[in-house]
Structure of Acetyl-coenzyme A carboxylase carboxyl transferase subunit beta:
Amino acid sequence: MASMLKGMFSKKKRYAPIPSEQAKADIPEGLMSKCPKCKKIMYTKELKKNLKVCDQCGHHLQMSSEERLQTILDEESFQELMGDWTSENPLEFPGYDEKMDADRKKTGLNEAVVVGEGSITGSEIVIAVMDARFRMASMGIVVGEKITKGIQHAQKQKKPFIIFTASGGARMQEGILSLMQMAKTSAALKDFNDDGGLFISVMTHPTTGGVSASFASLGDYNFAEPAALIGFAGRRIIEQTIREKLPDDFQTAEFLLEHGQLDKVIHRKDMKSTLSAIVKLHEPEGARQ
């Protein structure tokens, strides 16, 4: 018995070998992805199949504008509008041109929002998608103008307008010209609403600053993805101003829903079907071929 116990406790534990630097270098770039919330490592291909939602904790990772359009619109239905529009440097802000060039090269986009026409399960819409990879989707002159023109195009074509927002707010390199886009986009939405247009706003992580305080919050339906950060000023600034500690879930989509500032928090897997149902609900009789 004693010899058996000795044998049991004398066994050495086996550990997986630590990958060498060469082994790490041999792993193709982009093959694996890590969830920023629970830190789970997963195959990037499988993550994309799951609409970039972590299968362990349910965290919704950020999507590019291209990925978003592919998950929402019918295949090959998207036609981009104003795709060649680019920003200049109206205030001659130092280093701005170089940063813009770097983002264009990194993302393949000319600006932080993609606008165009497409269809959702056969229903024609105009859609705008903000892309946080480009200047954190900050709102400059061209971003505001593209969204405004998209709204006006939807009004002219008698189509619903849907926007997916994700932004750090106004673009500081364009100063007051950036802030003016809040009023311009809001005025365009007022005309669109007066003409009976349907506007659906979907706020994704993060939607902050001047974007959250203007067009993002003016939808006939205001939706958000789970746990998305939505707010105007930052948490620390608010706490210092009111001299109070804010709830842990403050400025999350769930907090806003509980306090009546959102209509629904929608999981990404349900987004297309939900938008399709709403668009069809508002279609005039005989609108579809």
Summary: The first helix runs from residue 2 to 9. Residues 23-61 form one domain.
